[in-house]
Amino acid sequence: MAGLAPRVHYLAGFSCPAGGLTAGGPRVLHLGAEVFLAAGRELVYVYDREARQLTAVYRFPGQVWHLEALALRRALLVLCARRGIYCLSLDQARRSVSQSDGDEDSEAASPVTPVDPDTCVLPDATLCAFTVLGDLLIALAQGPAQWKVQLFECPSPGADPGPRGQIGEVELSTHTPPAGSPGKSQAPHFRPVLCCVSLPSSRARHSPPQGPRAFTLEGPLFGLLFGADAAVLESPVILCGLPDGQLCSVVLKTLVTSRSAPGDPKALVRILHHLEEPVAFIGALRTEPSAEGPEDADLDCLVALGHHGRTLAIKASWDEAGSLVPELREYCLPGPVLCAACSGDSHVYHSTPSGLCVVDLARGGPPEDPVQSDGPGGLPPLLCPTSLGVCSVVTLSVSSRSPAGGTELLALSAKGRLMTCCLDLSREPAQPTRVTAADTGRKIKDLLCGISTVSERVSSLKKAVDQRNRALTCLNEAMNVSCALLASREGARPVSCTTTTAWSRRELQDVLTATCLLENSSGFRLDRGWALCVQVLPGSHGSDSGSAVTYTVPVDQLGPGDRREVTLLLGPGADGALDLPVTVSCALFLSLREVVGGALAPTDPFKDPSLDGCPPDVLPEQGGICLPLSEHTVDMLQGLRFPGLAAPPVQAPAPCHPPGDPVGTFLETCWRPGSEPVRPESLRAKYLPPSVAAIRASAELLRAALGDSYSGVSLCCATLQWLLAQNAAVDAVRARALTSVQAVAPDGTEIRLIVHEVAVADLCPAGPVQAVEIQVESSSLANMCRAHHAVIGRMQRMVVEQAARGSSPPDLRVQYLHQIQANHETLLREVQALRDRLCTEDEASSQATAERLLQVYQQLRSPRLLLL
Amino acid sequence: MSHQTPLGSSVPQASCLDLWREKNDQLVRQAKVAQDLGLSPRRQQLAQDALEGLRGLLHSLQGLPAAVLVLPLELTVICNFITLRASLAQGFTEDQAQDIQRGLERVLETQKQVGPRLECGLRGLWNSILHASSLLPELLPALHHLAGLQAALWLSTDHLGDLTLLLQTLNGSQNGSSEDLLLHLKTWSPPAKESDDPLTLQDAQGLRDVLLTAFAYRQGLQELIVGNLPRALSSLHEAASGLCPRPVLVQVYTALGTCLRKMGNPQRALLYLIAALKGGLICGPPLLEASRLYQQLGNTAAELESLELLVEALSVTPSSEVPHFLIEVELLLPQPDPASPLHCGTLSQVKHLLASRCLQTGRTEDAVEHYLDLLALLLDGWEPKFSPPPSPRGPCMPEIFLEAAAALIQAGQAQDALTICEELLSRTSSLLPKMPWLWKDARKGTKESPHCPPWVSATYLLQGQAWVQLGDPKQAISEFSRCLELLFRYIPKDKEQGPASNCEQGCMSDVALQQLRAAALISRGLEWVASGQDTKALQDFLLSVQVCPGNGDASFHLLQTLRRLDRRDEATALWRRLEAQTKLPQENATWSLPLYLETCLSWIRPPDRETLLEDFRTSLLEPCD
């Protein structure tokens, strides 16, 4: 399709907002030689193509959203954001603006005329789109919950600016109003599009004057889409494409309402289709050659383009029995669609950030393919966009002014350049012409213009290539890191994460923090896109209790040897409770969308377009690579504080009492001058015996497990140090060679850990076994249980490790073990029975059951078992 | 900037308060000036500016911690803001509820009630504020005003339970049993405004009156639709006795007329309708109601006259009233519903009603005139100046054409009827299946038949009738045959489409379809009879009796033909059946057929069924004697 290469003529440049123009805002349209242009700001330019100069510039009080030129009335209608519709007289414009010199970039030279507020003919802040059909102005307003189609008499410039009689109104389907600020209604990101279609003028005796956005559809398609009533009434129809993807139609002749009788949406509005993405364009085409010649043919195909490229085409056809049936096809064109236009033949022009493309709905496939799936007249099964090599066009308008018979497009690029693209689709052979001086001048200008277009295109392509390169580099690095991490399952990992805990004071409250240290000892960089995910899960390994909280911290540029620290608050929360143990698991996450998404968004125009079409959808929203690093359980032993071990004075700040105990505080302050402070704890200590649990392990086992690192101290000291190894206070314990410590749990109750040696007599036939008993004591049962659980956890791990090393236990008296096991089993059964009873009983008796349950639990914890 | 004003020092704050207050008064005055501008476009702009000013003022007031001293002003500004916003947008939205909630939370802040129970929503907020022991008396007037707006919001969104609770709390009545909202509204007396209070767009007292009328009217209308007439009457009386703008009063009087008509008091109903007509610019609903009343009384002349007046009334575009920047009764009324008795439709709907009533009551000349008027109205021009929303209940456009054609044939203008039918077919030609009657030869083998809506067949039937009248039996018979061919091929579309599918899509009730087939068969049979081909006629009549057993006319035509052909045994059997049928009570009047079909059936009815039966009996008895 080399013949499609357009001849591009540069007309003028206009200033545009920083960062270029975006789709939706800018508009360009022409009326004879005059071009009207809004570049997404408050200004509307009038440019004369014959004189090649700006004739007027108007400043509006807000962003200009839409333009329509009324040829007969010589007026320009302008929709200004959140203001309403203004009506300017074009003749007046001519007069009011003084002639400026012929310089093309003369914007600065031409005076800017602020529009008179009195020319606002339809003040309505909710209007989002409008179109004109003869004497009628059709507007789409955004109501509080619905879109409303409103019908007004068309205003004319200079007329009495009285109120416009509203002729009709009907509500369209619901839409989700913009969330957020309840005050000012936000500018919608996508605006609806409007379009008028009518029956052929040969049949409709009172046909409306054709507007720029009005199409004439052939009878069968019209009747099929809008029903027999519309066909009998020969009424024009308004098509609305809404940002939610709905495509609906309203028969204009039926839209007469009054305040006492508003239109019934069920009777008036027909929903034709749902595109499921914002509708960007509605147009009509002639797909079949017609006997009447290409100019007068009625259009036989309705198309709608969604913002992401989904395209709908509807035609009328007859089925086997001879009944009229709609033929509906959806295509996927490369998106995002910035703007689109139809030229009256079978071509649809649409612009994406990577270029302007044309698709032919008559042919669709390659022309040499003679077999069409649906036979003659059917829509092509696949559309092949052909790039025209003009990039970043944000608004298009088709003008048939081209003398050669081809199509001429009026386009505005993202950088504010107005140009015409002549497409000679018929491709007549170039004829040698005599070159005159004027021609040469023009030719040079064309060439220069072509160069500028090409350079604009080159810069955009270059940007895309850079983006892809960067993405590829990132992916390569990510691949390396993943391989390194997955290869070294055991041993030192190239990227590691260690977790430590510490108490600190924050905002009058002591808090337990976990610090995750991410260390990159590999030879690769962790670059853009990587994030450290830390999941804090209540409960220990694997136990699935409660809900997890995940923190995601972006790892920004972690080179080889670098380390990064992340500190998290574990608790206590607002209620003063800290539920230990918690599991902190760390993982590295690479978001593919972040790395690759940007590079895939604009599609490559040189790639085979038929393979294109869905790249942004390839990546799921959450797609990425997740590499688990470490898992760490923070238990009670790590959460203990030791105010008694004040040797390092700043090590542990004096524990603050939990904030939620005002009575305690009160009593304390009351009794301070007296002899003895009466705090609930001390009262409890006085009258309630502390809960005790113990665990025994054979000295041999412990010695083997602790190994050499604790040589030189007594076994009890070593055991205590081992238990508190991950606590910050371990140094003080070591320094003092303690065998028992007084600690404070996170909620402020006290816990004692006592380690002493015992001899167990009955177990072994060889004689008493030396053992170490670890005793946990606390006035709070819950804390005692947590601490006991933590100790048992460590013991279990130790035993498993020792068993792996293959140390053999000494001879045991098996019967003794059996007895212990039997005892425990009966106790467990009783627990089960008591628990069942607890569920069914009433208040009073459940009290007793609960007490018994407690006793049984305490018996279960009694240190009868010995770990060997 | 006011934000830096230390709260503790009273002097600068007092001056600030004055400043804010002055700003509020100025904005209210600006809105009132805009109100008086009439329908100028400046008005909207000025009001919009005032709204933005109020919004800004509210922002600066709410930027500071809530203070009891400023709170009455703040609440007043909220009230003005909501009033202006709702009246500009002509309705309440979720935003207004949020504004109220914000105001209430500010009040709670000063009451030191920490942690408002948000889960209870607005109702919970009102409850905790009004039940608080620390409610300051200086806040009461503004709170009552805000409560009035809350009541309006709840009334317009039909949260009547919440509304009742709020009013109970405001009135201080503890008995939760009383559910009568009207009584609560009546007993609610918001504190009067003091002269030195900040200006308001609408005071609480006025708001209460509006609420009272709106609620009474809503309730009355609802009871009327439900059919609870005595309660409807009392509610509507209440609405009429209150403060009522004239357009609303017209509606209330019309509703009273409807109610009294249904209660069997036509004279009193008429009095109310006359009062409504005197009342104002909008005279559509009372005229339509009057026509229904006269129809019930059997006074056709007066009925049609009312309809004609209604057509005239609707031809004049009513000058729209300028809405005030207040919460008005209209704002609180439900959206006009086409099913409501007060809905008078558009000009073309009424014109169609008038024309069809004329046709039904036998005023054929008038019917023709009105139908032609209606078609001209609908088809001329392309602007939607006077066009019908084809409501699902009414006939679709093709049926209006058919009714017009039937009226023309009835009036003896067969040629014009043909023109109308041709026009209809030409306008829909592109929609029809491609040459359905040639289809059978062209593609044999396929079982499927093209879908063609029944009104196309009906058009051929009427064309045939027109040819009958023009005395061209050949043409007539060919039209009837074409009609029958389409009809017997017609397969009713699956009924799952439900009631929403209208005639336009080609759905017709089974009874109507049977009658249409019978009508076409009888019509063709009669033409065969006229041309002396009795055996062909016999076939058609036999078929019509089979197709539509409920159609008695077919049997009579069959009987006559059998008699003519001298097939005595069959004739006697048929006669006995007919005799038995005539003794049974007639029930075929309950069918609702399209008007054009009913008219058409009336043409092919045998003129004197009784004499025919009598003749037959005597002829049957003769040989026995």
Automatic annotation (TrEMBL), chain A:
This is FA core complex associated protein 100. One of its GO terms (cellular component) is nucleoplasm. Signal peptide: none annotated. It comes from the Eukaryota. It holds the Pfam family FANCAA. GO terms for biological process: interstrand cross-link repair.
UniProtKB/TrEMBL annotation, chain B:
The keyword Hydrolase does not apply. Gene3D superfamilies: Tetratricopeptide repeat domain. It is found in: Nucleus. PROSITE patterns: TPR. Its main location: nucleus. InterPro entries: FANCG, TPR-like_helical_dom_sf, TPR_rpt. Keywords: DNA damage, DNA repair, Nucleus, Repeat, TPR repeat. One of its GO terms (cellular component) is Fanconi anaemia nuclear complex. It comes from the Eukaryota. This is FA complementation group G. The lineage of its organism: Eukaryota, Metazoa, Chordata, Craniata, Vertebrata.
